[in-house]
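Let us work through a complete example step by step.
Step 1: write down the sequence.
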Amino acid sequence: MAARQLSSLFLRAVARPVSARMDKTGSAIASALPFGKAWRESNMAWLGADEVNRAAFSKTLFGTPLMGVGVYVVGDTMVDSGFSFFESEVVSYAQKLGVKRVVLTHFHEDHSGNVKALQNAGCEVVAPRLTAKMMEEHLPIHPYRHISKQAGCGPNLY
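Step 2: predict the structure and record it as C-alpha cells.
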C-alpha cells in the first residue's frame, strides 16, 4: 500500500482535527552551559522508502547531541513536529517540502511542540482522539518540564 494511502487510512480511522491552544508562556531559560542546536535532513531511499524524508533535531552540550527528535515527511504529511525550540527550522523544513498536514503520534512536547507554528503556517493538524483532547485542554506534561528547563528550552506547553 502506498505511503499516501496509509496516511489517509490512518487519518480516517483514528485521528481527528486538533484545535491547539499551545501558546508559549515563557521564553528560554538562560543557562551557563554551552548549549547549542543541531539538525540534519535525509531521505529514506536507502530503506526503499524514497517518498519518506527525515529531519533530526537535537540540542547540543559541548557539541554532543542531547534530547534528539526526528520528524518525518511522507508526501505532503509530516509525522510529529519536534520540540518548540526548533520552531523556525521545522516550519522552514515543512514549507520546503510542501507539507499540508501534520499527524501527531502522541502529546509529548518532543512530538507536538511546533503544532501552533505549523497551524499558523497553514498546516492542518490531526492526532489520535486522546492526544487531540489533551492538547485542546492544554494539559501540562510534568516529566518533561524539568528536562526542558535544564536544557535551556523553557516551557512550551504549560
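Step 3: interpret the result. Residues 9-34, 154-158 have pLDDT under 50 and may be disordered.
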